[in-house]
Amino acid sequence: MKKFLALCCLCSLALLTACAKQPSLEMTPEAQARLEERWQKFEARGQDAAMVPYRLQMSLRFGTEGDTRRVTALFWGNSQRRLRLDVMAGVGATVAKILEDGQHFLVYSPTDNKAYFYQGASKPLLQVGVPVPFNLEHLADLLNGRYSQVFGKSFASGKFLSGDLAQYTLSGKLGGELTLDAAGLPVAWVEKGDNGKGWKMEVAFDDAASPLPQRLNLTHGNGKRAIVLVKEREKPATPFTDEQMTLSIPEGVPLLPLSKYQQR
Cα separations (Å) of 109 from 96, 127, 251? Predict the structure, then answer.
């Protein structure tokens, strides 16, 4: 009995000691100042990103575990709302030509010889097999380093994680939780809502001298996975012409709502 009571006392002492070592959940003014300072670094990066013409050569791999497919893509624009994306499934085999101009979205499928349209503020890229939970404008901003244009310019709350990372709950329309490294670069994002079944994204960068995203790793709670890899960046000396930014639909091609688009 004495041994039992002694053991109980030791367990109680250990529990009290462990509780005493738990860090306070209250955010100190110093920690809050550090969170604000890091967020300012994040905002400054977006302001420093040049608004110049660009063309990106990309590789996209998507599907579920054990069942993925790979396509390549060309993505270009003049850093305006009007953007073009061509998706290829093989050498010279274009499967989709896409134009986004604000909330106007148009895709032409050469293999089906059909065109599809959409107008609205949702994310139509997912419906045409481009595995990113953004529209083209946000994808362009993300890949060109204009991060605050994607994730917003303010946050609701923040906290520090292990490894000198800071996580912010976003207050903008996109929402979710954004993780920044010590340099203020966005290294991870988790979509809000959906009881943890939404999108999660990890971002890897080119190098410290040119901190632009090279790789996006995306996963969804429903089992879908995707990798977006920027293979080459081009900066044309002159802006793309209206003809280069236009998506021409051959005469006689039917124009259908995007809801009828069939992924291959």
Answer: 5, 13, 14
